[in-house]
C-alpha cells in the first residue's frame, strides 16, 4: 500500500476509521478490511471498541508487524500519571504490546502541554508506542507543542475533506516533516452527493467518494474513512489507483467553504485557526 511519511513513520495512506463501530460489527469490519489489503486501522479509547478492534486484527491473521495500529487518548487523561495508565489500559484492551501510533485525541483545556508532552514522549521511549502525535491541534498549539517534544511529531489527525480547507495546516505540518491524517474525509456522506466529485469520479470510472479520497491522497495526506458497509471497503481502497489531473485537483479545491467544518465538539474543541 502507498505510504505517507510522518516523522520517522511510514504510514499506510488509507486507514480504516472505526468511530461508532461496536461489537461484532467492529471486529468483523477490521478483519475484513485487513483481509482485503488494508494495513492501517484507527481507533481511540473514547470509541469504546479497542477490544473488538484488537480481536479483528488477530482474526485477520495478518502479521502484526504489517498492521499500522493507531489509538488515541482523551484529554481527561492527559495528566502524566493518567496518560500512562490510559496507554497501558489501551494496550491491554487491544491485546498488543505496543501500538504503532499513540495520539492525544484533543488538546486538554486543563493540563498544560508542558506536563503532557514529556509523558507522551515517555510512552515512545518505554516501548508502549512506536510513534506519537496529536489530533485536533491548531497551528498555534503546534507552535507550543513541537518544541517540547523529544520525539518527532508523527501526525496531526484533523478533520479534512473537500469542503474544509486545510492547506495552511498541511503546510505547517510539512515544515515539521509530519503528516496530516484526515478524519471524516467523506464529510459525513456529503461527498457522495456533490456533482463536481461525481463528474470527476466518473471520468476515472469511480464514484464521488473514491474521487474525494483520491484528492486527499493527492494532497500528500493520509485518510481514515469509516464505513460499516463491507462493499465500501473496495470502493475506498480504489482511491489508491486514481491519479487526478491538476485541473481536477483545482476543481475540488474550489469546493471548500467557510462553514465546511462538521466536527466541532462544544467544550472540547480548541479555537480553530
Write up what this structure looks like.
- This protein has 273 residues and is an alpha/beta fold.
- The chain has a domain of 187 residues: NADP-dependent oxidoreductase domain (TIM Barrel), CATH 3.20.20.100.
- Helix content is 39%, strand content 16%.
- It is built from 10 helices and 10 strands.
- The strands form 2 sheets. An 8-stranded parallel beta sheet has the order 3-4-5-6-7-8-9-10.
- The protein is globular and about 55 Å long.
- The model has no long low-confidence stretch (mean pLDDT 98).
Classify the helix fraction into a percent range: 25-40%
For the termini, the CA-CA separation is: 33 Å
Mean pLDDT value = 98
- Unreliable stretches (pLDDT < 50, length at least 5) are none
CATH C-level name of the domain at 10-188 and 221-228: Alpha Beta
For this structure, the CATH topology of the domain at 10-188 and 221-228 is TIM Barrel
- Helix vs. strand class: alpha/beta
Oligomer: single chain
Please give the number of β-strands.
10
Query: Can you tell me the CATH architecture of the domain at 10-188 and 221-228?
Result: Alpha-Beta Barrel
Silhouette: globular
Determine Rg (CA atoms, Å): 18 Å
Largest sheet: 8 strands, parallel
Query: In what order do the strands lie side by side in the largest sheet?
Result: 3-4-5-6-7-8-9-10
